Q: What sequence folds into this?
């Protein structure tokens, strides 16, 4: 038998039909739905007089528009409110399970899927959101889709797709103290570029990846799309099984045992061939900070803002100059001299309990720097928030001057009221530093939770490896 | 049914930067709409206007940024957007192709696109043409040099040509995508022709992996 990659196995096991040119009808096991990219799909389905193919495949939650402050009065912004109400109505009409805004299980769609065990190994998981790549941490083929495809999945339980190439990112070696999955992700993007994974599914492998917790693997897979890859994958191991056992949507009893027997096969064969391989030595990875307006514009915290004059490629040089102007930075400034105005700890990249614990450990017993106008912690879900409060992390953050908020996407993209003002500079644990992403004119530096927490206390970026 | 795409003979507008992300194409505040229309006026909003745009507010009378390329008189009426590599990266928002199409673009020409964006374009009759970096680079020079520069995009022949026929560049596209675009086909309808196959697949899966159907 031909050796196959994990991606090959997942693809083949979901193939319903293949057109002559290789376009494949791919069966979808799990469809996650949120309020921003679904209303037009539900409307299209209604206009075509169709119904959801398999209602139980869908799980819905409102996350992008929800306020992170007191929710007892509902959503103040009428435009946001209409979008969330529309999701509620659509789910009710079709009998789709939805965690509503005041449900303790509500949260960011990519946090709640795994948290509920709604994301399982061997599945295909899609959502009208590019960060669906997150779920690949569980050895499922998970990728983001557009609204037309949301309607396609609702109506047919399938998608039309062409197979991607196989790319392997192998990371070996121990991580230094203060270096996290987020730093690995940014280092990978810095190495291969924001289009380095375009047309590929990335499998992350190697001892370093194995040593990451499932939450760390989610952070790594989440950022695959920032390297251009629609999907990231990590093979199943004991940690995967331990994470899933007992989750509400996970199988139980005899079904669990049968599922586990199958899940253990979800790894690339030893002889499997990849179209592209990248090897990274974990010992070389330091805490990362982005300086520009694309996630590939990244350096390590002990470096300086790059100088466009040293860039030979004209298009790249112009891009760097434009980014520096937007970011209000001068070439050759040490990254640790960059002072910040706001701090955001949250997003589908870094809002899980381990992220909050790591940030709290940095903050404990300290106060925000005087130049930091706002530092906020936005847990990924109501359950993450409850767990953090049970551990007293909320007090640690509040005592330091942080705001402790309700779960949602929040200032990762600022569709709700949480955003940067023009010119404000933010240390953010989110995933995109695009122009205007966190608010028109806002300046985003992507970092790990530890780095964001340390910057909040110091008022500027600091090397957490030396944090005492 | 989406609009079918056969031959487009149109004015070209250049957007000379790499890695243009969908947050730039249509900023997040406009994604709150529950409709498929109304995005064209906010295409490239932060670059196109001098003030900050708000959803559900009229854009009439907002100050235009005269330096932004699409605001220049010579590019008014353009239906082909010439772009650099990795166009449409970032968010999966289909509002990006909706905004481009509503503004008036029917085709894009770039050396590469982000995968999700590329798919989303095809679902909306907006043709993303891929040419080599060298070809795209030359087109940028020509657009700049010749006001009123037009191109003919022929999907059936898979060519981009100058109107005088002096230059013809070929491009690749998956036959199935081409078939859908040329015929303006709704691919949900196409998929449902295989409904029996989907049902059979699903039944087998339910038997073999029942935990997926809890």
A:
């Amino acid at each position: 038998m031909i050796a196959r990659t994990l991606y090959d196995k997942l693809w083949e096991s979901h193939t319903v039909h293949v057109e002559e040119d290789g376009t494949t009808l791919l069966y979808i096991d799990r469809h996650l739905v949120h309020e921003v990219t679904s209303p037009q799909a539900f409307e299209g389905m209604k206009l075509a007089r169709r119904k959801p193919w398999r209602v139980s495949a869908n799980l819905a939650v409102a996350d992008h528009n929800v306020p992170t402050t007191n929710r007892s009065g509902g959503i103040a912004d009428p435009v946001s409110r209409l979008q969330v109400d529309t999701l509620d109505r659509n789910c009710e009409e079709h009998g789709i399970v939805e965690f509503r805004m005041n449900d303790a299980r509500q949260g960011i769609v990519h946090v709640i899927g795994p948290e509920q065990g709604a994301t399982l190994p061997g599945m295909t998981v899609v959502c009208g959101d590019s960060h669906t790549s997150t779920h690949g941490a569980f050895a499922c083929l998970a990728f983001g889709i557009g609204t037309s495809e949301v309607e396609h999945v609702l109506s047919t339980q399938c998608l039309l797709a062409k197979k991607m190439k196989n790319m392997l990112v192998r990371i070996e070696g121990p991580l230094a103290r203060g270096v996290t999955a987020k730093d690995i992700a940014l280092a990978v993007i810095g190495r291969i570029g924001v289009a380095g994974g375009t047309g590929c599914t990335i499998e992350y492998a190697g001892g370093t990846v194995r040593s990451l917790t499932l939450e760390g693997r989610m952070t790594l897979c989440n950022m695959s799309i920032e390297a251009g890859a629609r999907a990231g994958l990590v093979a199943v191991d004991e940690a995967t099984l331990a994470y899933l056992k007992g989750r509400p949507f996970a199988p139980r009893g005899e079904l669990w045992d049968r599922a586990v027997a199958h899940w253990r096969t979800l790894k690339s064969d030893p002889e499997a061939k990849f179209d592209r391989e990248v090897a990274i030595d974990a010992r070389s990875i330091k805490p990362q900070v982005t300086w520009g307006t694309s996630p590939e514009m990244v350096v390590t915290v002990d470096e300086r803002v790059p100088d466009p004059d040293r860039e030979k490629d004209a298009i790249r040089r112009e891009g760097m100059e434009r980014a520096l102007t937007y970011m209000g930075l001068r070439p050759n400034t040490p990254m640790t001299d960059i002072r910040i105005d706001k701090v955001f700890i949250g997003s589908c990249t870094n809002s899980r309990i381990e992220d909050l614990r790591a940030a709290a450990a940095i903050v404990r017993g300290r106060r925000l720097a005087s130049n930091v106008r706002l530092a906020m912690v936005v847990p990924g879900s109501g359950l993450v928030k409850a767990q953090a409060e049970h551990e007293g992390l909320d007090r640690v953050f509040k005592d330091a001057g942080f705001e402790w908020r309700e779960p949602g996407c929040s200032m990762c993209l600022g569709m709700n009221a949480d955003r940067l003002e023009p010119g404000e500079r933010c240390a953010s644990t989110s995933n995109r530093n695009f122009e205007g992403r966190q608010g028109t004119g806002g300046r985003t530096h992507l970092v790990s939770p530890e780095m964001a927490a340390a910057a909040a206390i110091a008022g500027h970026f600091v090397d957490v490896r030396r944090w005492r | 049914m989406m609009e079918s795409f056969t031959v487009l003979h149109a004015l070209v507008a250049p957007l000379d930067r790499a890695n243009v992300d969908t947050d730039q194409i249509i900023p997040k505040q406009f994604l709150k709409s529950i409709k498929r229309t109304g995005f064209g006026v906010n295409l490239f909003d932060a670059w196109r206007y001098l003030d900050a745009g708000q959803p559900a507010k009229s854009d009439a009378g907002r100050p235009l940024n005269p330096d932004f390329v699409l605001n220049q008189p010579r590019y008014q009426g353009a239906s082909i957007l010439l772009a650099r590599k990795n166009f449409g990266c970032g968010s999966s928002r289909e509002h990006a192709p909706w905004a481009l199409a509503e503004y008036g673009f029917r085709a894009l020409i770039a050396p590469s696109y982000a995968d999700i964006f590329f798919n989303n374009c095809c679902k909306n009759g907006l043709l993303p043409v891929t040419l080599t970096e060298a070809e795209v680079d030359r087109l940028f020079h020509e657009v700049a040099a010749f006001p009123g520069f037009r191109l003919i995009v022929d999907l059936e022949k898979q060519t981009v040509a100058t109107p005088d026929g002096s230059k013809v560049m070929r491009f690749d596209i998956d036959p199935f995508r081409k078939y859908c675009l040329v015929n303006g086909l709704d691919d949900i309808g196409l998929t449902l022709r295989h409904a029996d196959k989907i049902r059979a697949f699903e039944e087998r899966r339910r038997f073999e992996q029942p935990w997926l159907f809890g």
In short: Residues 198 and 228 of chain A are 4 Å apart (CA to CA). Chain A touches chain B through 83 residues (CB under 8 Å). The radius of gyration of chain A is 21 Å. The mean pLDDT of chain A is 97.
